[in-house]
Amino acid sequence: MMYSLVFYVPETHAEAVKSAVFAAGAGQVGDYEQVCWQVKGEGQFRPTEQAQPFIGQPGVLEKVPEYRIEMVVLAEYKAAVVSALKQSHPYEEVAYHLIQVEC
């Protein structure tokens, strides 16, 4: 079983987060490793008063240069990869999703 992992990360932390999830087993396709697709865009969010944001202030709309990064993850690495993503990502709430794929 394989998954597609998609996550969003501020431009300043993209390489560090990718390195962490690659080290945990993500991004392996056949004889290739550290395989991903990424596109730069703009993320938007407004932290609530209870939030402790890495960027911005509670109650204020923030727009941040971010990357959308996609890579495959074998089922056996799923838990380790998600843990590495959450531990290496600077945001309090990490925006990501896993989609089961057929290959």
UniProtKB/TrEMBL annotation:
InterPro entries: DUF34/NIF3_sf, N-reg_PII/ATP_PRibTrfase_C. This is NGG1p interacting factor NIF3. SUPFAM superfamilies: NIF3 (NGG1p interacting factor 3)-like (SSF102705).
